[in-house]
């Protein structure tokens, strides 16, 4: 912790000594110090896109992914190589990849699937889309990732699988999860949408469970504008994925030798195929994704070092097994040291200093959201919950997942780490100054609480 005495030792006029910006003082982060624009297309990405369009002018089918060849096939091969996994299916998005994965993994209507309530909704909606029933396990309060101990407590004879999200790009603890899954014969689906090319004990995230899903939507670490992918080592699952989510033109060749799938292969499909131009752009970005992620990690480490020792905020825990691919960089507010200052007041003071901090991410854990409280989803007739006998009803209540609830209620703070693709130390140093300034003046903040304006609307 930086004490007042240490602060006074500094001789140059430090921003820490100037009045807080929230009360009219100068900002710690100058107005003109801005993050790079992001997501970006490099000249190579643009040339790759233009070349694909030129080719499409001559071969119109080049712009259709119905057969799965062309740029789609090339991207699938490149991603498979990059991850060291044999089967890749490009899709129209991460959400579609997850829905296909749940189906391909053999989860059926009415089955229970264990999942974290601390995530983006599509980690969970893929379960509902198969009319299966989400059962929420609590999270590790350090990382926000699903807690293996809590998973084990939620297993019933009806449990069929686990969807594991690597939230913010920090890998979940996969070994104990895979061990529990083996013991109880459960499938493991990884939602790697926020964790493209993160590693767990040296192995790429998304390749550890039975099936992994990625997103290349425009906010993610490598982008194609939109798009996603499903990866697996299991040939049977891959064929099921093709049967469920691809055009009959692609099924025709791919399902040979799988009569139980071929018999039913028709156009009764979900149109989840990708646009080939996404595959071209994402394929081009694939060449520099590791360097971009490395830069995100270096910036993250710099910021973490700068904030270490502060008492109002805690940089993210990096577990010994983890090489994160920060999509979001999560901090934690420490109300126990804030003397009653509320998180929104702290955030408001930082925002006024020019720090682009987010007040939270999940905000309300999913087991406490109206859709679950009221058990309302799109299929009507109380589905999927009505598939289970009344005596066996699953209820969703506050208190089910205390660690996730506490993270949301009082601790989560975030930076979007997407733009951290260059060396940002000069900007990060100003952010660090701002954190120190606000912390050094917490007494003033407490004394003048009534003057702190509310947070701007979302
Ligand atoms: C973005 C995201 C998805 C969905 O990806 P889309 O490509 O937007 O469909 C799913 N899960 C998580 C955790 C995500 O962040």
Order of helices and strands: HHHEHEHEHEHEEEEEHHHHHEEEHHHEHH
Globally, the shape reads globular
Name the poorly predicted regions: 1-12
Mean pLDDT rating: 94
Distance between the termini: 32 Å
- Each distinct ligand: pyridoxal-5'-phosphate
Q: How large is the radius of gyration?
A: 24 Å
Number of helices: 17
Total strands: the figure is 13
Please state roughly what percent of the residues sit in beta strands, choosing from under 5%, 5-15%, 15-25%, 25-35%, 35-45% or over 45%.
Answer: 5-15%
Supply the helix-strand structural class. Answer: alpha/beta
What can you tell me about this protein's structure?
- Helix 5 (122-128) links the parallel strand 2 and strand 3.
- The strands form three sheets. The chain has a seven-stranded mixed sheet, sandwiched between helices. Strands 7-6-11 form a three-stranded antiparallel sheet, with no helix packed on it.
- It is built from 17 helices and 13 strands.
- The protein has 458 residues and is of the alpha/beta class.
- The chain is globular, with a radius of gyration of 24 Å.
- The structure holds pyridoxal-5'-phosphate.
- Pyridoxal-5'-phosphate (PLP) binds at residues 93-95, 119-120, 122-123, 165, 191, 193-194, 215, 217, 228.
